[in-house]
């Protein structure tokens, strides 16, 4: 049974929700599911923009058939060839054998890598900025390489100023009956998940994101339709564009301290809490303190994207950095996080190279500053450590207040 929604005249959302999936990409935990968006334009020509994951194939096909109402499908635009959007290309082409399958050269290369189905007779290769006339509206294709994958395109309906943005501007979280960010408590319910999605999935590609934003900067865009999560218009469109400007340039949103600690017997935790209290007493607000073992790394990556100052507190484990801290720092480096200020707390009972390893991990990031002297603890927090914690708190606080 179909479930569709006309989001603008002649433009129908024909995607679906997946709430049973535990982990997106078998990696990122989903608290509120995920939406796979697909859009169908009904004009003099009919045009489907992307398909959906194979987990919701039946619903999707019902949706497309329902909206077409017996008409043939003229075009299938594939903006992104990742399987969460491509699981139904073959089904669509088998059902609508006259359809023109629109992509760029890389799109078809990836299609042939992922699928054995021969769709070459349907291929219509487009180049950057090529246009397609659907009747009352025209589309223009923008290649956006590495806005997640190399073949990515965005499609602009430049008659109606609607951008189909591929993964960009997407978020985790299924739809809840309304489809536009301005029809829900988006800032309360989705924005953190949009940041987690961006930082973990697109975060590495800040320069390509900047490039496509620049390429589109002279275009009027009144609506953005991403492949996951709500669509944007009005104030929420301005909000997400502003967030992407910051996120893609690695500009922190919050001038405050994010304290991430590992602890085995609560000793390192007590140092992290002591530092947080001192920072609070010095006027620092809106801090967050996280136990690295209690959170999936994707949440901590997202917070690292948000905060200006990051304090890492770790015990020494097998003479090294506690491996969940190591993994997190490695991931932040892989994702290209930059322009942050780091401070360190190291707990060690009998030696190790933990501080040196922490410094080496962080030095791989660009535009990093180390704030204050590292606090070195022997097993447990004692009076003799308080001065060092106070000094570190003062250095962090001064840095936050002057930045
Ligand atoms: Fe939602 Fe890069 O796929």
Q: So what's the CATH class of the largest domain?
A: Alpha Beta
- Amount of beta strand: 15-25%
Which strand order spans the largest sheet, edge to edge or round the barrel?
1-2-7-8-9-10-11
Taking Cα atoms only, what radius of gyration do you get, to the nearest Å?
24 Å
Quickly count the domains. Answer: 2
Q: What is the molecular shape?
A: elongated
What summary fits the major beta sheet? Answer: 7 strands, mixed
**Helix- and strand-based class?**
alpha/beta
- Specify the CATH homologous superfamily of the largest domain: Ribonuclease Z/Hydroxyacylglutathione hydrolase-like
Unreliable runs = none
Examine the coordinates and then state which fold CATH places here, giving the name of the CATH topology of the largest domain: Metallo-beta-lactamase, Chain A
Mean pLDDT: 97
Distance between the termini: 55 Å
Topology, number of strands: 23
The distinct bound ligands, ions and cofactors come out as:
MU-OXO-diiron
Could you characterize the architecture of this molecule?
This protein is of the alpha/beta class and 403 residues long. The chain folds into 2 domains: 244 residues, Ribonuclease Z/Hydroxyacylglutathione hydrolase-like (Metallo-beta-lactamase, Chain A, 4-Layer Sandwich); 140 residues, Rossmann fold. It is 34% helix and 23% strand. It has 13 helices and 23 strands. The strands form 5 sheets. Strands 1-2-7-8-9-10-11 form a 7-stranded mixed sheet. Strands 17, 18, 19, 20, 21, 22 and 23 form a 7-stranded mixed sheet that branches. The protein has a 5-stranded mixed sheet with strand order 12-13-14-15-16, with no helix packed on it. The radius of gyration is 24 Å and the shape is elongated. It binds MU-OXO-diiron (FEO).
